[in-house]
Amino acid sequence: MLESILGFSQATGIYAFMNTPWGWPLAESIHFIGLCLLIGTVGVFDLRLLGMASGLAYADLHKLVRLGVAGYFLNVVTGVMFFTTAPDQYLFNPAFQTKLFFMLIAGVNMLVFYTTTSAEVKGTSAMLVVPVRARAIAAISLACWCAVIIGGRLITYYRPPYYWCAWC
């Protein structure tokens, strides 16, 4: 499996690019920009649903979520670049697995929001509180994205043992 992932990376040129002096730093920078867009929009929208910044219209804030989707797309692209360049650092890494788990929960949570609550929230006046269901979804979203960030940061610390010990 590792060989096929690396083969994909090499065949597409991702591996060669990522192993240039600027490949990994550039991809990391784009990944961080994507994260800022995602959390800066989805996070603010979630905080608004939880009652902060009353007076800001839910529908107007929701328009910013498109930027969050763009940020998520940047993170998926750069994440694939990281994963396919060094699959052994990710595939069996508990921090990476935790990150993916919380991304899955955040995605399901988003689907629940858009199928059950979104229309009601968009129609709610800026001065009113949204239903409990919307606040619960927002709290789950924030918790999941915080867990994704923490999992992403911990990936480096849970590499396979041969990365920890140069003389082993």
Number of domains: 1
Q: What is the percent of helical residues? A: over 70%
Question: Which secondary-structure class do the elements indicate?
Answer: mainly alpha
Task: Note the beta-strand portion.
Answer: under 5%
Structure description:
- It is a single chain.
- With 168 residues, this protein is an all-alpha fold.
- The chain has one domain (2-164).
- It contains ten helices and no strands.
- The chain has helices spanning 2-12, 14-18, 23-49, 58-62, 65-85, 87-90, 94-116, 118-122, 132-154, 161-164.
- The longest helix is centred in the N-terminal third of the chain and has 27 residues, at 23-49.
- It is elongated and about 55 Å long.
- The two termini are 24 Å apart.
What labels describe this entry?
168 residues, mainly alpha
Secondary structure topology:
Blueprint: H1 2-12, H2 14-18, H3 23-49, H4 58-62, H5 65-85, H6 87-90, H7 94-116, H8 118-122, H9 132-154, H10 161-164
Helix pairs in contact: 1-5, 3-5, 3-9, 7-9
Short structural summary:
The chain is built from 10 helices and no strands.
